[in-house]
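F.,

This is the one I mentioned.
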């Protein structure tokens, strides 16, 4: 069991929570178009933990706000370091559903951007589609506030939430990330193929960037290009990498 007290401690000391960066690329060329920040925890006694070992604990605690603030700071620090080294690359940060229920979120994000001198268009915030199914008017307000800053919004794990496609028109979002479960099944399941194709078409019709997640093979890449999908993430291009390696990969892939 991960103790809340240990997480509280991790937010107070340096270098326990770290970010792995996974490049997102343009499908046709493989050129990087950004990177997703994926948190890892160097736990003092358990070693390196992936998010599924602790994110739920965070999300059910009073740490959900402080945690996201901390991750946002880490991500923006990396982006500002990149810019100082001549690498202009946006970062995508995952938010918890509960973060969107916080009316102060846009102000918090604006302050973080200012602190690191990062322009708003270099930040993408990933939300899950189930967030959009929530009835709370606060969520709509918060999303409008974030977009007014110039931050981009991506809908993560798209296709898994049983949401209606019209949610994409009701909420102003910029990007849709097709869940890797569908991408990995494209070769075996006509249904998965249809879901990916429909999402790509819908994205194009609505002027949204569609990012296919979990691309592992050249065949999946070719299939996606054939569908008119333009962007992807996945082991075929690069796994999540810690910043020193991510740096080299982002420059190298470019
Ligand atoms: O590689 P991976 O094990 O990193 O990520 C597993 C899941 O954890 C993904 O669904 C991802 O969205 C989520 N995740 C990764 N980093 C963060 C984070 O900083 N905050 C939140 N809320 N979720 C994250
Ligand atoms: O839900 P979200 O997209 O935020 O989660 C990203 C998760 O997917 C992370 O756990 C990341 O390590 C993982 N991931 C990234 N690329 C691939 C891939 O090509 N294959 C698989 N199986 N997982 C991947
Ligand atoms: Mn994500
Ligand atoms: Na996903």
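My design for it:
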């Amino acid at each position: 069991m991960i103790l809340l007290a240990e997480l509280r401690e991790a937010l107070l000391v340096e270098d326990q929570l770290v970010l792995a960066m996974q490049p997102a690329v343009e499908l046709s060329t493989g050129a990087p178009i950004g990177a997703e920040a994926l948190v890892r925890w160097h736990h003092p006694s358990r070693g390196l933990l992936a998010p599924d070992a602790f994110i739920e604990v965070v999300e059910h605690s009073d740490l959900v706000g402080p945690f996201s603030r901390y991750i946002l700071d880490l991500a923006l620090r990396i982006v500002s370091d990149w810019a100082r080294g001549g690498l202009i690359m946006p970062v995508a940060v995952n938010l918890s559903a509960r973060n969107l229920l916080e009316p102060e979120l846009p102000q918090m994000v604006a302050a973080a951007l200012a602190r690191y001198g990062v322009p708003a268009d270099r930040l993408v915030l990933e939300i899950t589609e189930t967030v959009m199914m929530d009835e709370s008017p606060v969520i709509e307000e918060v999303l409008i506030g974030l977009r007014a800053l110039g931050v981009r919004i991506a809908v993560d794990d798209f296709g898994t939430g049983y949401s209606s496609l019209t949610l994409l028109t009701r909420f102003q979002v910029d990007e849709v990330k097709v869940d890797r479960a569908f991408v990995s099944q494209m070769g075996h399941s006509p249904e998965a193929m249809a879901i990916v194709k429909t999402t790509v078409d819908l994205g194009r019709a609505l002027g949204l960037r569609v990012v296919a997640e979990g691309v592992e093979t050249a065949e999946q890449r070719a299939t996606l290009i054939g569908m008119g999908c333009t962007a992807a993430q996945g082991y075929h291009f690069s796994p999540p990498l810690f910043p020193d390696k991510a740096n080299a990969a982002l420059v190298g892939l470019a």
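The chain has one domain: 18-253.

Talk soon.
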